[in-house]
Amino acid sequence: MNNSTFFFDIDGTLATYQKPVSHQLREKLLYLKIKGHKIFLCTGRGYSDLPPNLLSIGFNGIICSTGAYLRIQDKVIWDCPFPRPLLLELYNYLRELKISSYFEGSSFIYRAEQGESLEKQFPAIDQLLQQPPSTMDAIYSVTFHLKQAEELPAITQWAQAHHLNLFMQTKLHGDILMKECNKAIGIKKMLEYLHLTDWPSFGFGDSPNDIDMFRTVNTSIAMGHAPTEVKEAASYITGTFEEDGVFEFLEKFE
User: Rounded CA gap, 170 and 160, in Å?
Assistant: First the structure.
């Protein structure tokens, strides 16, 4: 295999919150680096939410917040946070509708809800919004959780009216980002920065927000448990996360 670039989603692809990357897959990723390939995380998670056991692999670059935050080692090479006025408007809108939401920054995940257990885990977004703009942690993605599917049309219409991207991960769970942000844009900017646009590229994922990635890389691989629309956008379908599908593909095509 010629030197190539590999882009990996995290949740349901490399790992989950409950299950870390498998030992054999971890070793395979390290082997790819040794052979001269470049490996990247390409995830909807914010940088503050990345698992240390994955970061310790030493990815050549990280695309976070569905393409809104790009980082190589300690250097942020591009980002696209919410402008403060728009962030305040979105916060007030979700609060008015009583929609559960979390605000993902580069340093912390901030909560909009109250509750003793939440207060121990996440700082409050309203406290962040009271800070001066010069010291405020940038917010790159807003995750929301609906109580019922009937709430979706209103929030979709609001996002479109404000020229924002909205990605649904499930029927009740989605992310809102700036219009300039998706995984495809993140990949293109990363490859241009590193002068790797001529290298063959592979992308692995399992969620609707991976479809943009699939349309950008040369070879796209959907996990076996991915929704139908994700599989239809992919070049190949590998095993499920539980079957260590990424390792299965890399073993076959190495």
Answer: 19
Bridge partner list, 174: 144, 168
Q: How far is CA 59 from the centre of its chain?
A: 15
Statement: residue 116 has pLDDT above 50: no
- Would you call 250 helix, strand, or coil by DSSP? helix
Residue 122, pLDDT score:
78
Please tell me what DSSP assigns to residue 56. T
Angle (nearest 5°) at CA 199 between 78 and 69? 15
Rounded distance between C-alpha atoms, residue 203 and residue 184, angstroms:
10
Q: How many CA atoms are closer than 13 Å to the CA of 9, on its beta-carbon side? A: 30
Instruction: Give the Cα separation of 106 and 150 in Å (integer).
Output: 32
CA pair distance 219, 173, nearest whole angstrom: 28
**Confidence band for 113, pLDDT divided at 50, 70 and 90:** low
Strands 61-64 and 69-72, by their bridges, are: antiparallel
For 172, the 3-state DSSP assignment is coil
CA dist 206 and 188 (Å) reads 20
Question: Cβ distance 214 to 233 under 8 Å?
Answer: yes
For residue 106 the two structure tokens come to: 């580069």
Identify the CA nearest to 44 among candidates 142, 147, 123.
Answer: 142
- Helix (H, G, I), strand (E, B), or coil: what is residue 47? helix
Question: Helices marked H in the chain — which ranges?
Answer: 23-34, 52-55, 84-96, 116-121, 125-129, 152-161, 183-194, 211-214, 228-232, 245-253
